[in-house]
Design a protein that fits this description.
Layout: E1 16-21, H1 25-38, H2 48-51, H3 67-70, E2 79-85, H4 91-98, H5 103-108, H6 110-114, E3 119-120, H7 142-159, E4 164-169, H8 186-194, H9 202-212, E5 217-219, H10 229-238, E6 241-244, H11 251-264, E7 268-278, H12 281-286, H13 289-307, H14 313-316, E8 320-327, E9 336-344, E10 350-358, H15 361-381, E11 386-387, H16 410-424, H17 435-441
Parallel strand pairs: 1-2, 1-4, 2-3, 4-5, 5-6, 6-11, 7-8
Antiparallel strand pairs: 7-9, 9-10
């Protein structure tokens, strides 16, 4: 078969700035981790871009390069870090407070971490009721806040002599907001910024500022943020890639692994009960019912889309799905997720699956931040603008085109991602048809 033409991808020349709204547990674990990896102190476990491989052509060809050697990604040495926060602590102080990484490791990169000082954040307690920001910007309108953020972005780029920027939201979960008229068009949204419309939350202001400058923007929280027509329109206008929402880490990661297996074997589901305990800032924020509602919507949607009860009513009609999150300070960043899954099999006989996942939330999220930063930069250099559905692999509530449903099956997501990389490089997409099929029927 003739090779497909390659996508024209601009080279990853110079430095890439990675800005994170939120300089807390997730972002400092990501930043410190990359610094430690660059010094040879640790390995990039969990990072697809750094450790993953990709099969090319037929299995008989034995071409399986590492993704980082196959695709022109930015190198770890070329990443420059910065961000915003509502507390003044530098990255070292914030990492110590978060308590995710051992002090012994942090002390080996202390000077580099201390040099990363947050810019003042855009914050209003109405949207995150459990936090009291003390290091925040002051302005009359949300439009003014957007201009201030754009100035921050440009200054960061100029000061650090960067070639490109990418922004990954690592901040808190905001209260649940449904799309309103202000979100339906860019014109309406910009008017809303100037009039301080209450349905425009701080995360939307960050997203608007980034996209206005044509900067790729990934949303790691379940916030509405940029998941509405006005910012889809802006992303298209400025040719900026967007992706989100909500990093797929602990319990939901397990659901997107287990649920496809149940459906593949045609095993039925009566109910899935999930509960979590965690004690970090995220847990404190989610202790507020309005913020939990945003997270709950993100978590609950997964099973419906994977199991497709409308196609398999005998197996999945009206299954019961409950999600709870409990704030428990002693646990810190070490989240525990319990799942009780009531399934049934041959002749309707009941069975159960119990899962107790003692995970480390930021340890699971940090490599996602790295991969998103590198892939979003790649997308822009490949002139892939707007919604990057091929990055659904990393999210609980993947952005999708309005006429499509979101894909939640982890394995389908992985196939779409790797096929996109193959497409970029002019390689044949993998269908997993057997080699014998090609031999006898080509």
């Amino acid at each position: 078969m003739d090779k497909m033409p390659k996508v024209k991808i601009a080279p990853a020349k110079g430095k890439l700035g990675v800005l994170t709204p939120g300089l807390g547990a997730v972002s400092t674990t990501f930043i410190a981790g990359v610094m430690a990896i660059r010094k040879g102190l640790a390995k990039p476990i969990g990072s697809m871009t750094q450790m993953g491989t990709i099969r090319l052509g037929k299995r008989t060809e034995h071409r399986v390069p590492k993704i980082k050697d196959f695709i022109p990604l930015s190198k770890l040495d070329d990443l420059v870090f910065g961000g915003w926060d509502i507390f003044k602590d530098n990255a070292y102080q914030s990492a110590i407070t978060a308590g995710v990484l051992e002090t012994g490791l942090l002390d080996k990169i202390r000077p580099e971490l201390e040099s990363i000082k947050p810019m003042k954040g855009v914050f209003h307690k109405h949207y995150v009721k459990k936090l009291n920001g003390t290091y925040i910007k002051s302005a009359k309108t949300k439009w003014d806040y957007a201009q201030m953020l754009m100035e921050d972005m440009q200054n960061f780029k100029d000061t650090n002599r960067l070639n490109r920027l990418v922004i990954v939201w690592c901040g808190s979960t905001e209260i649940f907001i449904k799309p309103e008229a202000v979100h339906k068009s860019l014109e309406a949204f910009e008017k809303g910024l100037k009039k301080n419309h209450p349905a425009i939350a701080p995360s939307m202001i960050y997203a608007y500022a980034a996209l206005k400058l044509g900067i790729p923007y990934a949303n790691g929280a379940p916030n509405l943020s940029h998941d509405f027509p006005a910012l889809f329109e802006l992303a298209k206008e400025t040719h900026a890639p967007i992706s989100g929402k909500d990093f797929k880490t602990g319990q939901t990661l397990m659901k997107t692994i287990i649920a496809p297996g149940l459906k593949a074997r045609m095993l039925g589901l009566h109910g899935w009960f999930s509960t979590n305990i965690l004690g970090n800032r995220d847990g404190e924020v989610l202790d507020d019912p309005e913020s939990f509602k945003t997270k709950e919507e993100s978590k609950l949607s997964v099973l419906e889309f994977i199991l497709q009860p409308e196609l398999y009513p005998e197996l999945y009609h009206k299954f019961y799905h409950k999600v709870r999150i409990n704030y428990y300070p002693p646990r810190g960043d070490n989240k525990e997720g319990w799942d009780n899954i009531d399934i049934f099999g041959w002749l309707g006989y009941p069975m159960q699956i119990k899962v107790d996942f003692l995970c480390r939330d930021s340890i699971l999220a940090a490599p996602i931040v790295l991969d998103l930063a590198l892939y979003m930069d790649l997308a822009q250099r490949a002139k892939f603008s707007g919604i990057q559905e091929w990055l659904s692999f990393f999210f609980k509530s993947p952005l999708h085109l309005p006429d499509l449903y979101p894909e939640h099956d982890l394995f389908i997501q992985q196939m779409k991602l790797k096929n996109t990389l193959r497409f970029m490089m002019g390689e044949e997409q993998i269908t997993h048809l057997g080699a014998d099929y090609y031999e006898y029927y080509r």
